Amino acid sequence: MMIRWLPFFVNVTALLIGFKIKSRQLSQLSFWQLLTIGSAAIYVMIIGYLTLAPTSYAFVNNQQVAPMMIGSAPVNLIPFWSTTADFYQNVMMMLPFGVYLALLLPTIRFRNVVLTGAIVGVGIETLQLILDLTINLSRWVDINDVLTNACGVVIGWLMITLANRTPLKQFIKKWLI
Questions:
Q1: Domains of the chain: which residue ranges?
Q2: Which UniProt key words apply to this protein (predicted)?
Q3: Residue 163 and residue 177: Cα distance in Å, rounded?
Q4: 3-state DSSP percent of the chain in helix, strand and coil, to 5
Q5: Using CA atoms, how far apart are residues 27 and 170, in angstroms rounded to an integer?
Q6: Which of 14, 48, 80, 148 is the most exposed place for a label (fewest CB within 10 A)?
Q7: Are 51 and 128 in contact (CB under 8 A)?
């Protein structure tokens, strides 16, 4: 049963190794920039837990979609067929990713933000499929998750980008890397 937690522990370990490797560069940053990086790392761990940790339940009990099964993995490839509460929860879950993208990579272009959101969504769903097939992670693989993850990233990035054109610019500037 413990092997099902392996992806989450690998995620946390990779973050800690990354911090160790970058420790010299981190010492040159301001308190606010370190807070940005530290909170982004905590956020990535939370996303790892929410998406790659085993679960025997869904946040929404009544799925409106009869999934296609690939081995033991339930898969939905029909977009917008089911828009239950988890549809909107995925947008909210990825909003901070877009915010951190804007803070950590302030010169990133809109097209790359959309692409990053889509790649992250596809990556999460692909990992869930692989882990469902190998260690029975008990997760749904859903095209809606890819779409809503990308949407959340874009909305979060737009929030910071647009706020950067207001008097909040000076406040946001402290957090930029």
A1: 2-173
A2: Membrane, Transmembrane, Transmembrane helix
A3: 17
A4: 65, 5, 30
A5: 23
A6: 80
A7: yes
